[in-house]
Amino acid sequence: MDSIHVTLPDGKVVEVQRGTRIDEITPAIATNGNIVAAKIDGRPVDLSRRLDSDCSLAWVSIDSPDGLDVLRHSTAHLMAQAVQSLFPGTQVTIGPTIEDGFYYDFKRDRSFTPEEIEKIEARMEEIAKANLKVTREEMLRSQAIELFRRMGEDYKVAIIEDLPDEVVSLYRQGDWVDLCRGPHVPSTGAIKAFKLTGVAGAYWRGNEKNEMLQRIYGTAWPTRQALKEHLRLLEEAKKRDHRKLGQELGLFMISDVVGPGLPIWLPKGAMVRSILERYIVDIERSMGYQHVNTPQLARVDLYKRSGHWDHFKENMYPPMEFENKEELVLRPMNCPHHITIYKHGLHSYRDLPVRLAELGTMYRYERSGALSGLSRVRAMTLNDAHIFCLPEQIQAETVGVLRLIQRVYRDFGLKDYWYRLSLRNPMDKANFVDNDAMWDGAEGYLRQALDEVGVSFKEAVGEAAYYGPKIDVQLNDVLGHSETLSTVQLDFYLPERFELEYVDRDGQYKRPVMIHRGVISTMERMMAFLIEHYAGNFPLWLAPVQVKVVTVTDQQLDYARKVSAELTAAGWRVELDERNEKLGYKIREAQLAKIPYAVVIGDKEVEAQTVAPRRRGGENVAPLSVSDFIQRLKFEVAQERGEA
RNA sequence: GCUGGCGUAGCUCAACGGUAGAGCAGCUGAUUUGUAAUCAGCAGGUUGUAGGUUCAAAUCCUAUCGCCAGCUCCA
User: Fold this and answer.
1) Any idea which nucleotide's C1' is nearest the CA of A369?
2) Nearest residue to B12 (CA, C1')?
3) How is domain A333-533 classified at the architecture level of CATH?
4) How do the domains of chain A map onto residue ranges?
5) Per-residue pLDDT, A362
6) Is the CB atom of residue A482 positioned under 7 angstroms from any atom of strand B?
7) Count of other CB atoms within 10 angstroms of residue A6
8) In CATH terms, are A333-533 and A547-640 the same topology?
9) A605 CB-to-strand B distance under 7 Å
10) A527 CA to B35 C1' distance (Å)
11) A367: which nucleotide lies closest, measuring CA to C1'?
């Protein structure tokens, strides 16, 4: 009589007694190592969960996203158990899963040494092998607090005290227990392939004012092969690291004599950069932007008026003071300068939109620990523009920017990106301008623009700039992490602060709206991204050296010089290898330098007045005349740029 | 900024208390070579910097600068 109906994953409905455990209904799955958890009406639970009402069940297999999450969470527990058994007195705090893995934060006086990490790994293997049952129990909040207090787990106590629930769940494996929502694998034996990947300090609750905890990162996979494959991918990604390739290919350097975070562009890197600059400036001009140039210093009052001094001061270099008390700062942003240009003259509504663009160099103070290669620097040149427009032009202008972004991404072959609509956090009045009507309106315009372009987007609360909402275009990097490349920000605030005006059709002075936008980010970050995106193999149109001319012996040097001069005169970036080395050696160097074409010249080519191109990678092209080769190069560039 | 790891020749690395070494790159010479490394010789260093311990320091200790992985922050 006290029975319930359970719909099984295969659609069958069974009638079982209330309180039956999931793994009792279909004993087969209990022994199937591939199933690590179940879902009751879509909610993940342990396989040992008792069913108390009609429901439908689904299995969570270890290689599904949910299953991996369970596995990694359980591995975090496994690690915490190992740590506490090896190092008594260490307190546990939190141990969530993250992309591809997990971490657990511990409170311990000293940090973990590499040797200790090895010991922890070994102990984890032992516990996994012992195949301890993982059991769940529920407990009143107050009891749990009492329990963890007795255990000396102050952080767990603090966590439970913040939980709203009256009943909390605990998980036990062997003599070890942790507060956790679950679900977990049925027993530690389900954990078969893991590796601890790093130690780091981390602040309790992510706040740098709190004490520092010791974090251990790890990764876990259903099989050893999957783990191996993951570690191999990490190695692959390392080879594409722009810092490594930048050094190998002679693109840029950072000198601790000049200063950290202040990149120095070497000739080859500067070549790529200037191609990028020319490319983006040309496109912007064709789309109605006017390029300007403004100085990198300004009176501090300019930034006081803009509000940056209040909101951005910790990222600004302190003012330089002179005898006459004039204070100058290195600019951290270009907008006030562009605003100044706008204010230089009267604007009719007929003039709008005014689109001012600049490759503006600016300086931001970054904490030393934040610096990283070209992607996080202290001096950077932004592909910046400010659109001053009528309120009714916002949507069209935003759409225009989005289309520009799409066009540029196509040219770089970027496909793996997504849009993020970054909104204010209405609760956070301190970090966002306090004007709900302004925000609501602005957020609406951006949504409409995204809809008009017809792209899907994710909303992110609290990610807006302090003066307005924005659309960020997020790219996935080599490791799958997303980073902002392009951004479109709506701003009603600076026009107000600077009392920007235009004369409307009715003769009244009115406020324009500002759109801040960046398409290819900063030259530094774009370069970092492209190096990794192409793994250093720049397409022909971007390659710092496009053609390397190599001869079989030095007998062909005269002709090779002529070929090289002809290509150079036609505008191609060419290097001639005049060294007395064997052909294979010179080919090898051209390949390692990732030059798109090596052009081979031997007696046959001199005789026939041709060149024998070899593409980067090894593909040989049948010998052809220099002018035919140039046609081929032109065609290839046109293809890359979507013009052929 | 914080936690941990690491700084040796231009590059990649060895030496881990007892006279700093290799490969590649560079230079010189020989070789005249057909699609990813021809051979030989030469040269190259106050071991990031500054102190300290020691008969003796690249090696141990302290400070400092920088790099790396995270935390925090972000274009």
Assistant:
1) B1
2) A248
3) 2-Layer Sandwich (3.30)
4) 3-61, 65-235, 333-533, 547-640
5) 95
6) no
7) 21
8) no
9) yes
10) 31
11) B1
What pLDDT does residue A562 have? 96
A:106-135 Cβ neighbours of strand B under 7 Å: 110-111, 113-114
Judged by C1' against the alpha carbon of A111, the nearest nucleotide is B4
CA of A364 to C1' of B29 (A): 53
Outline where DSSP puts E strands in A439-591. Answer: 457-461, 470-476, 482-491, 502-503, 509-510, 513-522, 547-551, 574-577
Q: How far apart are CA A47 and CA A35, in angstroms?
A: 9
Contacts of A632 (CB under 8 A, 6+ apart): A613, A621, A624
Cα–Cα distance between A530 and A544 in angstroms, integer?
A: 13
Q: Which residues make beta-bridge pairs with A376?
A: A372
Strand (E) positions, A242-294? Answer: 252-253, 264-265, 290-291
For residue A182, the model assigns a pLDDT of 78
Strand B lies under 7 A from the Cβ of residue A465: yes
Distance A120 CA to B20 C1' (A): 37
Whether the beta carbon of A583 falls within 7 A of nucleic chain B: the reply is yes
Residue type, A370: A
Q: Name the residue closest to the C1' of B33 by its CA.
A: A582
Kindly report the bases of strand B lying within 7 A of a protein C-beta atom: 1-5, 11-12, 26, 30-38, 65-75
Nucleotide B62 C1' to residue A113 CA (A): 21
Cα separations in angstroms, A609 against A411, A559, A603, A628 = 35, 8, 10, 12
Domain A3-61 architecture = Roll (3.10)
A160-186 residue pLDDT tens? 988 888 889 999 999 999 998 879 998
* A468 CA – B23 C1', rounded, Å: 57
Rounded average pLDDT per 10-residue block, chain A, 644 residues: 80 83 74 79 85 84 89 94 91 89 89 84 92 90 91 90 87 91 88 88 85 90 90 86 94 91 95 96 96 95 91 90 86 96 95 96 93 94 96 94 94 90 83 82 91 91 85 82 88 92 96 95 94 95 96 94 96 94 95 96 96 95 97 95 74
Distance A583 CA to B40 C1' (A): 20
The fold for domain A547-640 equals Rossmann fold (3.40.50)
Tell me, in Å, how far CA of A344 is from C1' of B60? Answer: 66
Name the token pair of A270.
């500067």
Q: Give A65-235's CATH code, choosing from 3.90.850.10, 1.10.10.10, 3.30.980.10, 3.10.20.320.
A: 3.30.980.10
Which ipTM was obtained for this model? 0.93
**pLDDT for res A1:** 53
Predicted local distance difference test score (pLDDT) of residue A431: 76
Cis previous bond, A318, omega within 30: no
